[in-house]
Amino acid sequence: YTSGSVAQHTFVDEGVFSVTLTVTDDMGERTAVSQEITVVPPNTAPVSENLEVVLDEDSSQNISLVATDIDNDEITFSIESQPTHGEILLSDGVVIYTPESNYYGVDSFSYSASDGIEVGNTATVSILINPINDLPEAVLLASSQSGEAPLEIHFDASQSFDVDGDDLSYTWSSSNGVFATGMLATHTFDQAGEYLVTLTVSDTTGYDTDEILIHVAPYNIPPTAQNQSATTLEDQAVDITLLAQDPENQPLSYSIITQPSNGTLTLNGNIARYIPNSNYNGQDSFTFSASDSQNSSNVATVTLTITEVNDLPIAFFNTTPATGRAPLVVSFDASLSYDVEGELQSYLWDFGDGSTGLGALVNHIYQNPGEYTVVLQVIDQEGASASTQATVMVMPQNQNEIASYDFNSSSGTLLQDISGNNNHGIIDGATWSNGKSGNALYFDGTDDSVNIGNVNLSGNQMTISAWIYSNGFLDDDRIISKSTGQATNNHYWMISIANGNKLRFRLKTGTKTTKTIIANSATPTNQWVHVVATYDGSKMKLYRDGVLVASTNLTGTIATNSVDAFIGSNIGGYSPWNGKIDDLHILDKALNQQEILDLYHQ
């Protein structure tokens, strides 16, 4: 008996016990409740038995695992260790054991049993694998399986083997009987037909065979190819039917053996198309052969004669400049025109304005604006002729232009001023490149520039416009500048980059200090940008891609100086431009917003 709200008791014996709880209050009233406790005897783990199994090499064995449980509980088995020389598969207490291929000797694995409460002892299954003799494996190799009679074939059995390492013997036979013994054999089949060759490989207890079918065809007479000749005109293709005969009338295929030296050749079946090299005449040749299903013919030669014909001459000329303002002096150069067979006899020019000329090098003055089609006709010594044409664009004079550079009318080291004012530029280092439209000058950001001489703006109006392309800004990169030095007040007019990447315009009027305006936003790089700077007597303005980006009040007459102006740098080579400049114009008129937009969209 025990009192208190919590109690503990150990039942030593098995059986069914009734436990009663009685609760008493302060008034002596009692209430009782009972519960049965069942005590079962302790569990005993199952016992697994060691087993011994015997089987033959390369066979499998079902092994029933054995274990007893005195409590008669349901038993499950588990593998404790795997065999070393085989594989096992456990299912419902039965193990399927499969030894490794060709292995014999001893092996083992272990297992245990569980009754769901406890795991019993580990038992061992000892396995003995008895050796058995393995048959050899025959592998037949042959140098060929088909050919014409007489056909000699080399046979090889060296890849045959016996896993037990037994000594092997070899026998070679066909439908005509045994023809050789030994690992290597050679046999000649004299007659056409099909022969089944059998290799028999034997050890002391058994044998294995391998077979191969040999097809011997009747002797084939090769085809005969014929020598041929063909004639064609210079620059004209010719198709040649290749000729060959086969005594057995078998279908033939054709192959080119050597290519021609002075032309190209394509082959389609027995049709060879020969195309002589451009303008070649004289002799040429190629060789070919024909094949039936078994043999190739002799090599035959096709001799080719290419007859000379007169070729048309080639007309070509350069125009310098191709555009400009009237009156425009244009130089025409046809010296690159030619005739492949000799000299050109004459050069005939039609300048498109009613005038004509003769000779390889001619000059012509266009007095009036317009678009002119220039035609050159060249004639060779045989009377054959050819012509080509180009366009010359002559623009009217712009009374407000001080200097105008389209970069398309120039070459070499001269930048042509097409305004008619002869403010031509001397190129120093800058190189010609693709532009916004046509050509442009590329400045390397180191020491390139163009000196346009003593260009001055006077009065109280001006416009400078240009297309620019920067590869990356350096330090105060100059687009155009007229200045006696680097200081702000040294500048008479200038467009450049300031503050790293902002567009800047400087202008001096009268005797005043040079005025500067700078855009608030960055100038893009690696793309074409249109810049315009204007002064109308009361305001300086700066535009980028047709949009006003900076302005300030300014009055007075534009200051002048005899110092030279430069494109792509400041005087002395300072502050060089890094990129391209194209289509630059200097005017003594202030363009308005609409005119600037029109210029941007041209």
Topology diagram in text:
Layout: E1 15-24, E2 30-39, E3 47-48, E4 51-56, E5 61-64, E6 67-68, E7 76-81, E8 86-91, E9 94-99, E10 105-114, E11 119-130, E12 141-142, E13 146-148, E14 151-156, E15 169-174, E16 177-181, E17 184-189, E18 193-202, E19 207-217, E20 224-225, E21 228-233, E22 238-241, E23 244-245, E24 253-258, E25 263-268, E26 271-276, E27 282-291, E28 300-307, E29 318-320, E30 323-325, E31 328-333, E32 344-350, E33 356-358, E34 361-366, E35 370-380, E36 385-395, E37 401-405, E38 414-415, E39 425-428, E40 431-434, E41 439-444, E42 449-453, E43 462-470, E44 478-483, E45 491-498, E46 502-507, E47 515-522, E48 528-535, E49 539-544, E50 547-553, E51 565-567, E52 578-587, H1 593-601
Parallel strand pairs: 4-11, 13-19, 21-28, 30-36
Antiparallel strand pairs: 1-2, 3-6, 5-9, 7-10, 8-9, 10-11, 12-14, 14-17, 15-16, 15-18, 18-19, 20-23, 22-26, 24-27, 25-26, 27-28, 29-31, 31-34, 32-33, 32-35, 35-36, 37-52, 38-39, 39-42, 40-41, 41-52, 42-51, 43-48, 43-52, 44-45, 44-51, 45-46, 46-47, 48-49, 49-50
